[in-house]
Design brief:
Porin; 1 helix
């Protein structure tokens, strides 16, 4: 008799467990930096994607997301002289996993929460734009950057009902732990950002 794969046996239980949670869509903007120890200009980045949350208790929930994220720096490459600027953008596919702690409600409508966790990201593409001495051009520099990134996340937010839906507003701080530059520059390339996100539960 042919043996049934284990994943087929566990799939119904996993589906029921996922159904017990809630799905949402989140999108927002960020102010991002990348080069440690350098007075760079912040890049206005963005992110969007689906999110899933599973309640563990009345005050705790486990959340996971799959987001397309743009980070980088509006002015980088500190090894260049001051007359040249270089805007570096990184397009990433990111998987954040966070633990949410829900504090007591404010009135009957607003549910504040704190979140803490980490993420794993894969860098899909990297582009730099040089400007200086009357010259401007774009260059792909994916070979100079590591593809995998790991980091920490922390945030504060609030849920509230509106027009028959539940919405989420969240402010999130992102700090990368991976040094991304393959050539070792004097300053490390590590992603950072402060994001403002808006979400809607489906």
């Amino acid at each position: 008799m042919k043996r049934i794969p284990l994943w087929i046996i566990l799939l119904p239980a996993l589906s029921l467990r996922l159904a017990a949670g809630s799905f949402s869509l989140k999108a927002g903007l960020s102010q991002a930096g990348m080069i440690s120890g350098y007075g760079e200009k912040a890049l206005t980045g963005f992110q969007f994607g689906p999110a899933y949350e599973l309640s563990l208790s009345a005050h705790l929930a486990l959340g996971a997301e799959l987001a397309f994220v743009r980070r980088g720096t509006a002015e980088g490459m500190p090894q260049l002289n001051s007359t040249i600027s270089n805007r570096i953008t990184l397009d990433c596919l990111e998987l954040p996993v966070m633990l949410d702690w829900r504090v007591n409600r404010i009135g009957a409508r607003f549910q504040p929460f704190l979140c803490l966790g980490g993420y794993a990201a894969y860098i899909l593409g990297v582009k730099s734009r040089f400007r200086g001495d009357g010259v401007s051009y774009d260059e792909r520099i994916a070979d100079e950057v590591k593809r995998a990134d790991l980091g920490l996340l922390a945030g504060i937010g609030c849920e509230f009902p509106l027009l028959g839906r539940t919405f989420v507003v969240e402010c999130r701080l992102h700090h990368g732990l991976t040094r991304l530059d393959k050539p070792v520059y004097p300053q490390a390339w590590k992603t950072t950002s402060l994001s403002l996100l808006l979400g809607m539960r489906l």
